[in-house]
Amino acid sequence: MASNTSNYKLSATTANLKYNDILPYKTENEAQTREFLNKVIEVLLDFVKASNDRNEKILDFHHPEEMLKLLDLRVPDHGVTLQQLVNDCATTMKYQVKTGHPRFFNQLSSGLDLISMAGEWLTATANTNMFTYEIAPVFILMENVVMTHMRELIGSDWRDGDSILAPGGSISNLYAFLAARHKMFPNYKEKGIATIQGQLVMFTSDQSHYSVKSCASVCGLGTDNCVMVPSDENGRMITRELEKLVIDRKSRGHIPFFVCVTSGTTVLGAFDPINEVADICDKYGMWLHVDAAWGGGLLLSKKYRHPRLSGVERAQSVTWNPHKLMGALLQCSTIHFKEDGLLMSCNQMAADYLFMQDKLYDIKFDTGDKVIQCGRHNDIFKLWLQWRAKGDEGFEKHMDRLMELSEYLVKRIKDQPDKFYLIMEPEMVNVSFWYIPSRLRNMPHSKHREQELGKMCPVLKSRMMQAGTLMVGYQPDDRRPNFFRNIISSAAVTEKDVDFLLNEMDRLGHDL
């Protein structure tokens, strides 16, 4: 990518114009408007090119105090010129992390799907809200069709349920919690906590996403009443421990009402045993929610869906984020319910200045009263366009390819036991391992060695960022010190990139 803004010069007649000279759109300045937007597109396309160029750095790292000196982030009293705005765009992208780079293995969401990106451009241009059919007719119908298809992938008896796109998996999980409480206590909406004679209690794995525990805080249960169920060595919920905890809470007079299983935990990529948990939920009358924000994409794969997601159709609600494994651009999160009508009855506020009952069309297509938001971003067009481009078959191949690349990484780690230590056989694209520098290669593996390997992780990560050639995340968990968690969720990754990953870690870290 260009190191300066010299490649993005506007013509003399346009460069010194300001926003008010051409915008809002003025016919007499159409040529200048097009020139300005075309330059912005050039910046964008150069960033796309750089993101897919393995010779480019993933990032040009600077510490915050250094970055503030490189950037002019002031909000001015008077507007700057169009040329300065183009320069600002170029500078911003120059220092942005290229999450679409084939050697960016850091986050659950990575890669740059160009069809989804095109959908996002047009979404921003349409700039509409998703609360009523009258202002987003095509997008509302798109959402209905795609959400119905996603429910069909969950289970054949889910077709007539309900779904919505939410601003992230955390809010999707919150919708599940709210619906579960509403289902058990339909008067809670009006009467509040006095409706419940006893302490509500929810359960989730100790490996689950923090947003599940956050529901207990946000909705008044208190985090002490979000019971963390122990997991096994592979990060899966231990169901016999779940039942013990349910029985214990019931013996105290509490009301167990909600269980969240995780299909693809954030760190280890573990899948809780849904069928076993569903049996316990049936036995004790609890709502079963599946947080498949991360692993939901595997519903599209015949090869990898089972046994990981076996039993998902028995849940009452499912979170599924296409912006993760499926590669839709951020943000794109969905929440699905087996039962239709719960979203509306739980969240409806019947604001008559938006959701009038005497409109000229069928008001069941107004979605705004089903959600706790009013303003809701259009997250459907990019997903619909991407699905049109790939089809179910294309997404299945994409899921299978990501899993196969992760299996290749596991094989390459096992081929080099002197340099890498595989922590466990993964169920998903999360591959957890330690890098072993030269001085620790002859040391027998022990808790002491693990502590030493853990100390290496932040140092090696800092070298990656300063070199700009590679990004892999690390973290500790409750059983071990820092370790690397590699994620392959980008369609651009190849076996050569996996080889580069291991070789580059060794190059950067052998002397630690």
From TrEMBL:
It comes from the Eukaryota. One of its GO terms (biological process) is gamma-aminobutyric acid biosynthetic process. It holds the Pfam family Pyridoxal_deC. The modification N6-(pyridoxal phosphate)lysine is found at residue 324. Keywords: Decarboxylase, Lyase, Pyridoxal phosphate. Its cofactor is pyridoxal 5'-phosphate. GO terms for cellular component: cytoplasm. PROSITE patterns: DDC_GAD_HDC_YDC. One of its GO terms (molecular function) is pyridoxal phosphate binding. Homodimer. Belongs to the group II decarboxylase family. This is Glutamate decarboxylase. It comes from Dendroctonus ponderosae (Mountain pine beetle).
